[in-house]
């Protein structure tokens, strides 16, 4: 057992660094939404939440192609390619900021999402299958800690750079003449240029480091018909695994609610009268709650709690916190949105191993389908933005309740579908 752990310790450290990058570029979106709404003078919430849509829709478009790329390149080279693609997207933020072109920002976000789709398709199953399946949720929880620490840092850094004086700036913009307003908005947009130069350089460096590393490839393409119920005996298509399909749906709605909890909370706080100078820290509260949940998962899974049990508890608490966020008001309502981070923390690490269990040679394509489900982060927040324009930002959170109920179904029956 000790030797086995040593074998995947170095790969875990390398993948942990990748998950840190995932977290940094993903969770900065929560700050980019209110920032770009000001800098690009967007008129509606629907427009501003296109930030999440452009980023996460790349997963739907590129997840399956990513699976085929990995079949050709293997995990290691696939990860390096993903990092280079992300670097291309990051460098596009420079001309986007210089021209204050919202569409170009969205293109950059889509390209970053494309690179992440390839990285996620490789890294998540890698963590799942590199060690015992029953402790996969614990390993993914460790990756989640790397991800959320990066997210907290991203929000703090970009919040300070982009939104430190946003409240005063918004008031000043109302009284400025056209030329002064244009110059002020150009200065605001230029604040992200240096950070994205740095992000681009880090991504290129990591791509080179991955290629030069000792990260081993895992061969999951062989004959998987030798270990009873764990093998895809008689299966000719990945679509013949009902538990995987239900897992894809569960992951779709989960990513939707996770992104809403993390990316809408700043704008929600502003909508109920909280200044941006305070609200810009709310995403860190959500991520902090997720961090606590990951630590709990590492301690409890699988020694004291199964992955399925953790998933049930997360789904139930998520539905409860959502309802409480809707029926309360002020800072208490915001606190319940932040607590959704605790509910969301163990859903991702529990769904992946439960959905991929027994896929054998179909693991890469199954992973591709699960990564495709990350598009829930593109569609559900956009729906939330539309509903918040039509109703209000608080009542729009009702769309999260049925999402948690479906996750509860997957945790009770869905993950066992077709395994009898």
From TrEMBL:
Domain Major facilitator superfamily (MFS) profile: 11-420
Keywords: Cell membrane, Membrane, Transmembrane, Transmembrane helix
InterPro entries, A to Z: Glc/Gal_transptr_bac (IPR005964), MFS (IPR011701), MFS_dom (IPR020846), MFS_trans_sf (IPR036259), MFS_TsgA-like (IPR050375)
TM annotation in the entry: 7-28, 48-71, 78-96, 102-119, 140-163, 194-216, 237-261, 281-301, 313-342, 362-384, 396-412
Keyword Manganese among record annotations: no
Bilayer disposition of the protein: Multi-pass membrane protein
Alphabetized Gene3D superfamilies for the sequence: MFS general substrate transporter like domains
Cross-referenced Pfam families: MFS_1 (PF07690)
Chief site of localization: membrane
Localization, UniProt: Cell inner membrane
Family from the record: Belongs to the major facilitator superfamily. FHS transporter (TC 2.A.1.7) family.
Role noted for this protein: Intake of glucose and galactose.
Protein name as catalogued: Sugar MFS transporter
Organism: Chryseosolibacter indicus
Lineage, opening ranks: Bacteria, Pseudomonadati, Bacteroidota, Cytophagia, Cytophagales
